[in-house]
Design goal:
The complex is a heterodimer. Chain A is of the alpha+beta class. Chain A has two domains: 233 residues, P-loop containing nucleotide triphosphate hydrolases (Rossmann fold, 3-Layer(aba) Sandwich), CATH 3.40.50; 145 residues, Beta Barrel (OB fold (Dihydrolipoamide Acetyltransferase, E2P)). Helices cover 24% and strands 33% of the residues of chain A. Chain A starts with a strand and ends with a helix. In chain A, helix 2 runs parallel beside helix 4. In chain B, helix 1 packs across helix 12, helix 3 packs parallel to helix 12 and helix 11 packs antiparallel against helix 12. The chains are: A alpha+beta, B mainly alpha.
């Protein structure tokens, strides 16, 4: 296995009129699971294709292990077939005329390995993925989940330096997706494989990744561990994209009252000090406050908790809990409800720990770092 | 009731038109089995009183060399044009390169070049290559002339091959060649058979190239049959038998592979894989 370093990658089309990837740099350590996350058209698949060698970038450098595979400056471009990376596509891309066994053997035949070794490797991967009884079938005779396994097997059988996976679970139903997700993670751990995985599904990203690179319009919005992204979103976009149900947002303004800094959000006022932010905001500053639905509780967790009386608008039962849509004044928000039964139209008291409130300055939408953040983090960069 | 009458009318028209189409063939068949005397005395469509194979024996003796030439020319020209056209179509459809659109445009323009327009330069080229009156010369002409049509048809079929398969093959470490032989060609058998039949019938039935580029040693059966008209003006049975002999290979190909042709035309509209 190998690490992957992407340096200053830039891809543009139509003579520079369309920018797909805008000076992106990140690194994936050897044996780590990195997820490129972002909405459609953010450039994540283009980056993956650049790493695979399917696209020549306009400028930038890609290093796999110790080897520079793409460098526009040094005029290096290693062809995809010579990069020893394995790719799994959303469409599975199984060769329709070949059996499962032949599909698995195809990349090994390309390496001109001895027949005995090919047979042994195919058998061992088939056993790993539980598809030994499908080896004689053709792709058309397989279900979606089985095809997905074969596609994964074809990548595994090569023992490549890096796995590139382009929304590989996109065509599976919800139940199968969870199952294959688990298997994928298990295999990655077992093989200590370097995997770069593209998805627009933040749940997949949070559950699979050692590291998430979140992109928008060809640029990196934030990179870090799933926990970091969830707990310390660098800006409003990240805060809104990561987490399900999404974060609630309410606009506020910084005021001074009897020498104290307050943030007035309309339905509540909160002392800036109680929020635990690491720097003072000037009075008059407009801010956006963000609260995760999971941080709004039925019971207070500390004496400083803010009380939010609200009217239940809609309930989405999830079995063991529910997502409740409530109205508090003009503020519409969602909360994760684990308390007793609720009825639409009923009154409910909700509690909010001010420490859990995320503060973003407006209009730039950057996060105001908190005392507990400690050192480092991209969030710091906005507040030197 | 009215629908029944309508259907009857349609069937009647279809039967009449079919008979009209079949009548010349029937006339050729009955005439080919008659003796010279009987041809002069009876209607061309009447069944012979004493059917004889002498017309076929005579036609075969006149045409055997030319028939062999035709087989060689057709096999060579068909495989030459289909083979090279397939490679062109594959590259144009699945492995784009700078200037690919221009190449495609020029190839497509090649389809619209009429035989007559290129006949003189073609003759001069073949003669300069010292290939006049050789099977090789005619095969070369058919191959070159067939490439544009084959390339465009193959490109249309191969364009249906999902691009993800190409990308997958590249990252699997496959060369474009291996991917073609192992995946694309076997997945598009229907397309290949369709284009093979198309080229086979076109070259087998072709007259002009054979007439201009062929001589006594290399003339195909179509030219030889045409020559019978002048040399054996009175022997209708031989001429008719010769015509039918010439049609036999095409009929055999259609009988065995015609279903592929129809399926191939239909499949092209949806998917080639």
């Amino acid at each position: 296995m190998a690490s992957v370093t992407v340096k200053n990658l830039f891809v543009s089309y139509h003579r520079g009129r369309t920018i797909a990837v805008d000076h992106v740099s990140f690194a994936v350590e050897d044996g780590k699971f990195c997820v490129l996350l972002g909405p459609s058209g953010c450039g994540k698949t283009t980056i993956l294709h650049c790493i695979a060698g399917l696209i020549r970038p306009t400028s930038g450098e890609i290093i796999i292990g110790e080897r520079v595979v793409t460098s526009t400056e040094k005029n290096i471009f290693v062809r995809p077939q010579e990069r020893n990376v394995a790719m799994v596509f959303q469409e599975y891309a199984l060769y329709p005329n070949l059996t499962v066994r032949e599909n698995l053997a195809f990349p090994l035949e390309c390496q001109r390995l001895p027949k005995k070794e090919i047979a042994a490797r195919v058998q061992s991967v088939a056993e790993l993925l539980g598809i030994t009884d499908l080896l004689h079938r053709r792709p058309a005779q397989l279900s979606g989940g089985q095809r997905q396994r074969v596609a994964l097997g074809r990548a595994l059988v090569r023992q490549p330096t890096v796995f590139l996976l382009d929304e590989p679970l996109g065509n599976l139903d919800a139940q199968l997706r969870v199952q294959v997700r688990y298997e994928l993670k298990r295999i990655q751990r077992q093989l200590r494989a370097t995997m770069i995985y593209v998805t627009h599904d933040q749940t997949e990203a949070l559950t699979l990744a050692d590291k998430i690179v979140l992109l928008r319009s060809g640029k990196i919005e934030q990179e870090g561990s799933p926990q970091e992204m969830y707990e310390k979103p660098a800006n409003l976009f990240v805060a809104g994209f990561i987490g399900s149900p999404p974060m609630n947002f309410i606009e506020g303004q910084v005021l001074t009252c009897e020498g104290m800094l307050l943030i007035d959000a309309g339905i509540f006022k909160v002392r800036a000090e109680a929020l635990g932010i690491a720097k003072n905001l000037a009075p008059g500053t407009k801010v956006m406050l963000g609260v995760r639905p999971a941080d709004i509780n039925a019971r207070p967790s500390s004496p400083q908790d803010l009380l939010l009386p609200a009217i239940v608008d809609l309930l989405e039962p999830l079995g063991d809990s529910a997502v409740v849509h409530v109205l508090s004044g003009n503020f519409k928000f969602t909360a994760k409800w684990e308390g007793g039964s609720l009825k639409p139209g009923g009154l409910v008291s909700l509690f909010l720990n001010p420490r859990k409130i995320h503060v973003f300055t407006l209009p730039d939408g950057m996060r105001v770092s908190k005392i507990e953040d400690g050192a480092a983090g991209r969030a710091e960069e906005a507040f030197p | 009731m009215s629908t029944l009458v309508g259907r009857g009318l349609v069937v009647t028209v279809l039967v009449v038109v079919t008979l009209l189409y079949l009548l010349p063939l029937w006339g050729a068949f009955t005439t080919s089995l008659k003796t010279d005397e009987e041809i002069d005395l009876t209607s061309p469509i009447a069944w012979p009183q004493r059917p004889t194979a002498s017309g076929y024996i005579g036609a075969f003796n006149h045409l055997k060399r030319a028939l062999l030439n035709s087989v060689l020319i057709t096999v060579g020209g068909t495989f030459g044009s289909v083979g090279l056209g397939a490679i062109c179509g594959y590259v144009l459809a699945l492995h784009s390169f700078p200037g690919a659109n221009l190449v495609f445009l020029l190839l497509a323009a090649g389809i619209f070049l009429p035989f007559q327009a290129i006949l003189i330069p073609l003759f001069q080229t073949v003669r300069a290559l010292r290939l006049y009156d050789t099977i090789g010369g005619i095969v070369l002409a058919h191959t070159a002339y067939g490439i544009p049509m084959c390339a465009v048809m193959f490109k249309t079929f191969y364009s249906e091959v999902p691009k993800a398969l190409v990308r997958q093959a590249l990252t699997d470490g496959s060369s474009p060649w291996r991917f073609y032989w192992r995946v694309v060609l076997p997945s598009t058998k229907l397309a290949t058979v369709t284009i093979l039949i198309f080229q086979f019938t076109s070259i087998w039935n072709e007259l002009l190239f054979g007439l201009v580029l062929g001589g006594p040693r290399s003339m195909p059966a179509t030219v030889a049959l045409n020559n019978l008209v002048g040399t054996l003006a009175a022997q209708w049975n031989i001429q008719m038998a010769g015509s039918l002999l010439l049609a036999v290979p095409v009929l055999i190909v259609y009988a065995f592979l015609g279903r592929y042709l129809v399926r191939g035309y239909m499949a092209g509209a949806v998917t080639a894989v």
